Structure formats: structure tokens, C-alpha cells
Amino acid sequence: MAKMEQTLVIIKPDAVQRGLIGEIVGRFERRGLKVTAMRFEQIGRDVAGQHYAEHQGKPFYDGLVDYITSSPSVLMVLAGPGAIQATRNTIGATRPVEAAMGTIRADLALEVGRNLVHGSDGPEAATREIDLFFGDGGVVDYERSLDRWVLE
Ligand code: DAT
Ligand code: MG
Prior knowledge:
Blueprint: E1 4-11, H1 13-17, H2 21-31, E2 34-41, H3 45-51, H4 61-68, E3 73-81, H5 83-91, H6 104-108, E4 117-119, H7 123-134
The structure holds 2'-deoxyadenosine-5'-diphosphate and magnesium ion.
């Protein structure tokens, strides 16, 4: 079995406004990923700046922060074997027109600045982002009875 991991997902403001929360959460659930934290919140500019610190100074940065703070998001932690990569490839490539068919971004989005969902891009980012959004608590460790049918 791949290494058990946790990853941070943001269902971004465009997805919430478009009524796609259930569709997106459902795709992760159906894949077998386990929800271990979930919160509905409008991200503030300060936290958005910390989350997207790697992009500070890039031409799209201000628009990115405006977008992610414009309306509420759903913040989630997903757990499972290889959860970081599984989540990234369920989401699809950054630019929706380049994303593989069957991914969330290819199926439901068109523009890079309205690409619906965020997933941590590696173990260090996952740790940092889970700490940023759930460092004060909210990640729940629990047994899921169907796991013997999902995990080897
Ligand atoms: P991802 O969200 O796939 O991890 P990223 O971390 O490179 O992509 O960038 C974060 C977000 O910033 C991305 O979801 C959309 C936006 N973005 C990235 N590159 C961009 C670009 N060249 N023009 C406009 N927005 C961009
Ligand atoms: Mg990224």
C-alpha cells in the first residue's frame, strides 16, 4: 500500500458559487479518499497571502488573492494512501484546457483563474497548508468501516 498521507483541499469560491461543492466532494469520496476535516469559511487576505506565498510577485498574484478571498470556500483535509498525488490527479492540471479528461478541472472549468479547487502539491506543502488552515484543530482521526473494501 502507498504511504498514508493527508492533503489540504480548497473548494474555491467559484465552485461554491456554482453549486459544485457536492459534485467535487463526491469525486474525492468516490475515489476512496477519507474526509478528516472540513470547514466553510471566507479566506482572509492575510491567510491567502501565506497560503500562496510562493506566488508573491508574480503577475497573477493580486488577482489570485482577490479571487480566493472573494466569497466563501470549503477547506478540507483528505487522507489515504498516496493521498497527495491522488488528489492532484483527481483535480487535474492547473490550466483547465490542458487538464486530462475526467479530471475536475477538465470536466467543469475553462480558465486558470477559475479552476475550482486547490490540492497541496507535495508532502511539505501538505504539512504547511494543513497547519495553516487546521493548526488550531479540526482534523479528526476516526475509523471508517468501509476501509477494508478500499484499502488492501
Ligand atoms: P495549482 O493550483 O495547480 O497547484 P499553482 O500552485 O501553480 O497551481 O498556482 C496556484 C494558482 O494560481 C492556480 O490554481 C491558478 C493561479 N495561477 C497559476 N499560474 C497562473 C498563471 N500563469 N496565470 C494566472 N493564474 C495562475
Ligand atoms: Mg499549487
